[in-house]
Amino acid sequence: MQVPLCDLTAQYLEAKEEIDTAFHEAAMKSAFIGGEPVKKFETELASSFGLKHAVGVSNCTAALSIVLKSLALQPGDEVITTVHTAAPTAEAITLAGGRIVFCDIEEATFQIDPKAVEAAITPRTRALLPVHLYGLSVRLRELLAIAEKHHLILIEDCAQAQGTLYDGKPVGTYGAAGCLSFFPSKNLGAFGDGGAVVTDNDEIARFVRMYSNHGRQSKFDHTIQGANERLDALQAAIMLPKLRRLAQWNERRRQAAEWYRQRLADVEEVRLPQPIPECTPTWHLYVIRTEGRDALAKFLKDKGVGTGLHYPMPLNLQPAFASLNKPAGSFPVAEWVTQQEILSLPMYPHLREEQVDHVCAQIREYIVSMIRQKRIVKP
Ligand SMILES: Cc1ncc(COP(=O)(O)O)c(C=O)c1O
Hints:
Elements: H1 8-14, H2 16-29, H3 36-49, E1 53-57, H4 60-69, E2 78-82, H5 87-95, E3 99-103, H6 114-120, E4 125-129, H7 140-150, E5 153-157, E6 165-166, E7 169-170, E8 177-181, E9 195-199, H8 202-212, E10 216-218, E11 221-222, H9 233-243, H10 246-264, E12 270-271, E13 279-280, E14 286-290, H11 293-302, H12 332-341, E15 342-345, H13 353-377
Parallel strand pairs: 2-3, 2-4, 4-5, 5-8
Antiparallel strand pairs: 1-9, 6-7, 6-13, 8-9, 10-11, 12-14, 14-15
Helix pairs in contact: 2-9, 3-9, 4-5, 4-8, 10-13
The structure holds pyridoxal-5'-phosphate.
Residues 59-61, 85-86, 88-89, 131, 157, 159-160, 181, 183, 193, 195 line the site of pyridoxal-5'-phosphate.
């Protein structure tokens, strides 16, 4: 049996008729920039969050960097984020003229550690940029309290967490703005790149709309120098039928996570992901921890099971961020779990129970053989 890490074709096939129609309509109208599909998508997206504004942009890197630009950071202004995230989270800070300040994560949750955040605050700190990693939620209550105490703006990176709830309300609605990614493999994926900013803040929404469209308020009225970072009409049209299915697809991810939990909870060599009690996760990724994960990944590959590493190292160890001078040992928890233990198992809405059975049976087989080998080496 083959079980890929992710199956986007199954998603397409479920919504094929509507997607094909959307594609055809856009082509026949030759309307590719802005217009009705983008408006419609933004309206439904904002209402799915219960917020006033959703502004489509070209990707989540743009969403994050434009929201940060709206803060008019001055040279030396600092933005605190997690060291265990995709590179774009940190890149966005630099793109907006800020200084990246990394923090370590909590071992049990993989999320930014509020204690580390508090310790990283300086007189130059302007904003907190927590990431709801893997479709789980950060400790929002603690982070919002820190932001309030130190007069900081909190912006939520929800690239991996569209639909995730904290205390029953979507993440992305707690900070000044939430930033979304529609990278194809995200819970809501485009046929290419896409992103959005969701917010109740009129000023942020206005700035994002203007900046992403060459800094203009109308066709020939350029107020600021911006960029071309708009969401394509075609992507918006294609994503509408997917957006309408997202709640149901996220529910199916929760079902798959429950199948994993039922089958692996008693395997003591495997540590399962732990959402905090306030969180209703959307399981963008299902990440387990185990000793010797590289050998397990190889074993699973040979048995037809796709796995992934999100991410193989924390950002402080990437050459791109070397100038921050945070050598190995600076973030012990993230450095240990990323390089030694984490492994992403197959996770997508169309994952079937027998496929989870197969993955879990292979993991059990590997663990048994590993234990046997250890007994041979150390009698
Ligand atoms: C946590 C996180 N933030 C930001 C991004 C950037 O998203 P995009 O690829 O849409 O620019 C990603 C995507 O990889 C991500 O996973």
